[in-house]
Amino acid sequence: QLQLVESGGGLVQPGGSLRLSCAASGFTLEHYAIGWLRQAPGKEREGVSCISSSRGGTNYADSVKGRFTISRDNAKNTVYLQMNSLKPEDTAVYYCAAVRLCTYYNGSFYYGSYDYWGQGTQVTVSS
């Protein structure tokens, strides 16, 4: 079965850290760019970060730049999102997706097509 599985979400206090994982099964993750997106209650889904398939280039939304780091471990077929200095406004369901593009321009992500989606993991930042 071809799927992505996210893990690592939870409840954390403001200023805290979490590391999300996106593990692939049934296909090789390194052949894809991987995007992390999030959706807060009552809001549209938004791009957070992405990592390209080739040279591992990365992009970040302005709202998370300097706080979040995306990386990939091809040996483990997994992509990570390290989230530091978390803020209440980071509260959302976080999704990873295998995408065709990792482009960030003028405040927007361009992922091309979405080939696979994970089920999402809840991140709650609250005191």
Shape assignment: globular
Q: Unreliable segments (pLDDT under 50, ≥5 consecutive)?
A: none
The end-to-end span amounts to 39 Å
What is the radius of gyration?
Answer: 13 Å
Largest sheet, in brief, is: 7 strands, mixed
Our count of helices gives 0
Notes on the structure:
It is a single chain. Helix content is 0%, strand content 53%. It is an all-beta fold and 127 residues long. It is globular. The relative contact order is 0.31. The mean pLDDT is 95.
Secondary structure layout plus pairing:
Layout: E1 3-7, E2 10-12, E3 18-25, E4 33-39, E5 46-51, E6 58-60, E7 68-73, E8 78-83, E9 92-99, E10 103-105, E11 108-110, E12 114-117, E13 121-125
Parallel strand pairs: 2-13
Antiparallel strand pairs: 1-3, 3-8, 4-5, 4-9, 5-6, 7-8, 9-12, 9-13, 10-11
Short characterization:
This protein has 127 residues and is mostly beta strands.
Features:
about 130 residues; mainly beta; four-stranded antiparallel beta sheet; about 55% strand
